[in-house]
Amino acid sequence: MDPNKAEISRLEALPQDLLGEIVAKIGAKFAEDYHNCILSCKELGASANDERVLKTLNFAPLVKKPLSCRKHLLIMKKCLANNNPDAHYIKGIIWYFNLDHCDVGLHHIGIAANGGQKEAIYMYAMLLLCRRRTEEGKTYMSQLEWAKDTTMAETCWKQIKTSLNGIRVARKRCYMISLRNMKPPDVCHPRDLDNTCEKCFFYRQMFKFIFMV
Q1: Pick from 54, 91, 84, 49: which is nearest to 69 by CA?
Q2: pLDDT band at residue 198, thresholds of 50, 70 and 90?
Q3: Residue 8, Ramachandran bin (φ over 0: left; ψ between -120 and 50: alpha; else beta)
Q4: Where is the At2g35280-like TPR domain positioned along the sequence (predicted)?
Q5: What average pLDDT does this structure show over 110-131?
Q6: Burial of 88 (0-12, 13-18, 19+ CB in 10 A)
Q7: Which conformational region is residue 173 in: left (phi greater than 0), alpha (psi within -120 to 50 degrees), or beta?
């Protein structure tokens, strides 16, 4: 007997609920493996619409290139309906920056941030800070534990720059006012990465975001 067929037979014998859990774990790691998985046999393919799969499906390639989601509107719609953080983050970027519907975009980025998507947490914090919702922005940024180590925040920023590449990011007047209000006193060292107080940190992050540096 073909060993590959034997493996498929074992899968066919598993309960559909367990198959859904298996597909969800695969999809949460790698989108390409998820695609191959649901095509491998009809039992696994039947789990493609499982809410656990749709809620956790990894959209890493689309997070890097949000505008390319137009080629995947059906799966995006299903995942949005199941509160997939990546899907909300992608939609938020498109609505906020590309379509200039800031309130709608901020809403979706907020859902992604509340769902634990790290880049969305950073993005949401920056937008709140730039829109003069300072304390809310600081609270979200604290989830990245920047006071202990700024590595996570810096990594998120690099990934966000990749996501926003090719998308026009407007310098709104309220951003500039917020940046000016956040400027640290002269005795601080906003350019000194090894000597960062709270005000220096937020000022530096806002400056990078507003001027895309």
Answers
A1: 91
A2: confident
A3: alpha
A4: 69-163
A5: 98
A6: buried
A7: alpha
* Nearest partner of 111 among 81, 134, 148, 147, judged by Cα: 81
What tokens does 40 get?
A: 């491998």
Confidence of residue 111 (pLDDT cuts 50, 70, 90): very high
3-state secondary structure (DSSP) of residue 108: helix
Q: Which residues have C-beta within 8 Å of that of residue 96, sequence separation ≥ 6?
A: 102, 104, 105, 106, 109, 127
How far apart, in whole angstroms, are the C-alpha atoms of residue 22 and residue 18?
Answer: 6
d(CA 52, CA 20) in angstroms, rounded, equals 7
Burial of 35 (0-12, 13-18, 19+ CB in 10 A): middle
For 47-105, what is each residue's pLDDT tens digit?
677 888 889 999 999 999 999 998 889 999 999 999 999 999 999 999 999 999 999 99
**Close Cβ partners of 72 (under 8 Å, ≥ 6 residues apart):** 62
pTM of the model: 0.86
**Percent of the chain's residues with pLDDT above 90:** 62
Distance from C-alpha of 97 to C-alpha of 160, rounded to nearest angstrom: 12
C-alpha 88/C-alpha 178 separation (Å) is 26
